[in-house]
Amino acid sequence: MNILARLTQSLYKSLIISILLLHPMQSSADSVSTKTYRELTEIQELMSDATNENLGLKTAIDRLQLLLTEVAKGSLDEALTLQTLGYAVMSDENFEEAIVYLKRSLETEKLPQNVVYNVGYMVAQLHAALGQFQDALVFAEKWFVQLEQPKADQYIFMANIHAQVENHAQSIPYAEEAISLAEKPKATWFQLLAANFFEVERFGQAALVLIDMTSIWPDETTYWEQLAGVYMVMEKPQKALATLKIAFDLDLLEKESSLKSLVQLALMQGIPEHAARLLEDAITAELLPIEEQYLDMQAQAWVMARESEKAVLTLKKLTELQDGGEAWMRMAQIHVENAEWSEAQAAVSNALKKDLDSPGRAWLLLGIAQSELGKFSDARTALRRAQAFEDSERSAKAWMRYSEDMKRQAEWITSNQ
Fold it and tell me: CA-to-CA distance for 303 and 298, rounded, in angstroms?
């Protein structure tokens, strides 16, 4: 039900109660005049006529405005006429004018106390509907303190108004009471409570509310993501990771940003193999695209996990997406570290066919691999090329001397066989 329908229904009930309680058969001090009673009753029937709603409403407003000029000032007749007129123009979606008429009806101080509560609440709701939350709060507080046993909906209304004017600390107890009173509290009530706790930096309590939400609505991805976010603010990345991992295992994570955060958290927590497998699963399930950034991240994770073979396989896939030769260089480095010289030579040779950030380093790795393979002439050529670059010159000279020593040693062994 939209705001207009709810307000209209509420005020219509209030009007009926008002007229019935103040029937002219009651004592004259507390009742409306017979003429006004009959006129208001006819107008209410006209307003509720569904067969010609727009025409009936317009006619009702015209008759009420005329009646307002006829009733005595400061009388109960005037109070009820103003109240009914407020209802009518509100039904016509003129909230500003409705507020004026309803406030005027309250100012007469002639309405019964229970009607005053309802009209005051209505004014607060109209102000809220117009975004005038400070004005809404003024009326809402006067109305609320007079309720003997407030209901959950009334508590949450107060919580919302306080939150809208950034009284987050004051909003919290209203929201908590609403949730405790309701048999089935709405998700938005929990969201409001969690947001209030977050705004006042009571992050632990915000997390507890979100934990409740993930228990009640376990299929709602947003709540898991919000809980992980709160844990990150609390500097508890392990809990954030565990939260996102549960959501992932439940097949709830679909946003690239959430999946990426999950992988990054795994890397931060020193479990790179976990990160790599998460990426592999996400890509296989088509939750993440086969893109350079994700293959790069996966290769990095496999390297950190000391899974060289898997890292190389991932880097080979990456070479198909890159124009440059950096993936080949990373592959070559892995092979060098594992003393896989033939593979290193092949990888760096492929790298040199591409654009490189540091070609000198590529020539250096090629010279190292060829030296270890006993290809001393080729190694000498590669190392000379490496010496031409500032960032690899020093290492290339050292390897040149080492390569020459290896060559002499190999020649001595051959000659003495």
Answer: 9
Q: Which residues lie closer than 8 Å to 269 by C-beta, 6 or more apart?
A: 237, 238, 241
Beta strands (DSSP E) in 75-234 are: none
> Does the pLDDT value for residue 47 go beyond 90?
no
Whether 256-321 and 326-417 share one fold: the answer is: yes
DSSP one-letter code for 27: -
**What's the alpha-carbon Rg for the chain, to the nearest Å?**
39
- Cβ neighbours for 42, distance < 8 A, ≥ 6 positions apart: none
- Residue 4 token pair: 């207009």
How many CA atoms does the CB half-sphere of 253 hold within 13 Å? 28
Tokens representing residue 380 in the block: 């000498």
Amino acid at 368: I
CA end-to-end distance (rounded Å), the chain:
98
pLDDT tens profile 380-406: 999 999 999 999 999 999 999 999 989
**CB-neighbour burial class of residue 124 (10 A; exposed 0-12, middle 13-18, buried 19+):** buried
Note the pLDDT tens digit of each residue in 97-141: 988 999 898 888 888 777 887 888 888 888 888 888 888 888 888
How far is Cα 305 from Cα 363, in angstroms, rounded to an integer? 28
Measure the CA–CA gap between 187 and 319, rounded to whole angstroms: 47
Please choose, from the candidates 266, 198, 203, 279, the residue with its C-alpha nearest in 3D space to the C-alpha of residue 238.
266
C-beta of residue 256 within 8 angstroms of C-beta of residue 285: no
Buried b / exposed e across 26-55, counting CB within 10 Å, b at 16+?
Answer: eeeeebbbeebbebbeebbebbeeeeeeee
Gap between the Cα atoms of 338 and 254, Å rounded: 38
pLDDT of residue 31 exceeding 80: no
Sequence-ordered list of residues with C-beta below 8 angstroms from that of 213, at least 6 positions apart, any chain: 187, 190, 191, 194, 220, 223, 227
For the chain, what are the domain ranges?
A: 1-144, 149-247, 256-321, 326-417
The architecture (CATH level 2) of 256-321 comes to Alpha Horseshoe (1.25)
Is domain 149-247 classified as CATH 1.25.40.10?
Answer: yes
Residues of the chain above pLDDT 90, percent? 45
Fold of 326-417: 1.25.40
List, in sequence order, the alpha helices (H) in 251-375: 256-268, 272-284, 292-304, 308-319, 326-337, 341-351, 359-372
Closest by CA to 117, choosing from 215, 38, 18, is 18
Class for the domain spanning 1-144:
mainly alpha
Beta-carbon contacts of 172 under 8 Å, excluding residues fewer than 6 positions away, are 159, 193, 196, 197, 200
Residue count of the chain, please give it.
417
